[in-house]
Specification:
single chain; 133 residues; alpha+beta; five-stranded mixed sheet
Length: 133
């Protein structure tokens, strides 16, 4: 008897193998994409901190308030910069500064240099913008 193979479509075994291969590839690639997103966010933050540091140095040179160690406030986090060196990836300070001065990246005025007596979250006050004194 001569039967023709009139097979149309895929067998269940073939479909399971394809799904298994796709699942394995996804398992390998998803963490890689997550790392790439984190690296991109770190690079963006690093560039924003560099821009703010440059803005600070211009302001400091014009106002005579150059400091080797500054704190930049960005998106409710504080980043410390010493001698122009920024951590890569940027690491926020564990505690908000309780005294001193910080450069507020969100300030919309000419001077973003702000005095802190203690953090607002602790019931303290922030001084207005102005020169370090």
């Amino acid at each position: 008897m001569n039967k023709k193979n009139n097979r149309k479509g895929f067998t269940i075994v073939e479909l399971v193998i394809v799904i298994a291969v796709i699942a394995i590839l996804a398992t390998v690639l998803i963490p890689t994409f997550g790392n790439m997103i984190q690296k991109a966010n770190n690079a963006k933050l690093l560039q924003e901190l560099r821009n703010e540091y440059t803005e600070y140095t211009v302001w400091a040179a014009e106002n005579g308030n150059v400091s080797d160690e500054i704190v930049i406030k960005m998106d409710d986090d504080y980043y410390q910069i010493t001698n122009g060196e920024i951590d890569n990836p940027p690491v926020a300070m564990e505690n908000d500064p309780t005294t001193g001065y910080y450069w507020d990246a969100a300030a919309e005025s000419e001077s973003a240099w702000t005095a802190v007596t203690n953090t607002p979250a602790q019931g303290g006050t922030t001084g207005g913008e102005g020169e370090q004194g």
